[in-house]
Amino acid sequence: MLSARYFPATGAAKAIAAQIALTDRGDALTVQIDADTPPFSIALTDLDISERFSRATRSVYLPDGSMLEVDDGLALSKLLGESVRRDSWVTRLQHSWRAVLISLVASVLLALIAYRWGLPVAADQLSQRVPATWTAALDRAVLAQFKTMGGLEASALSPTEQARLRAKFDALVESEATRASLPEASALAKPTIYFHKMGSVPNAFALPGGSIVFFDGLVSLAGDDDALLGVFAHEYGHVIHRHGLRNLLRTAVISAVAAWYFGDFTALANAAILVSQLSYSRAFETEADETALRLLRVNGIKTQPLAALFRKMRDFEKAPAATNSSDAVSDAAKTEQKRPSRFAIPEFLSTHPDIDSRIERFEREAAK
Amino acid sequence: MSVIVRYGHSIDAVMQETPPDPIPVDSPNPVERESDRPPEAAPERVQFEFTGSGSEYFKIWIVNVLLTILTLGIYSAWAKVRRLRYFYNNTRLAGSSFDFHGSPVAILIGRAIAVILILLLQVPFLNLAVLLLYLGALPWLLYRSFRFHLANTSYRNLRFNFAGAVGGAYRALALPLGIVLGAAALGGLLVAIGGIAGKIFGIAIIVIAVLSLYVLGPYLQFRMRRYFTQGAELGASGFAFHVKALEYYVPYAVAFAFMMLLGALLSGVLAVVAGVSMGDLTDLKDLEHKSVGAMVVLFGLIACFYFAMLAIGPIIIAMVQNVVWRGTSLAEKRFHSDLRVPGFVKLWMIVTFLTIITLGLYRPFAAVKLAKMRVEAMAWTGAPDDMVAILRAGNQRAVGSEVADLMNVDIGI
Question: Is the ipTM of this complex over 0.90?
Answer without folding.
Answer: no
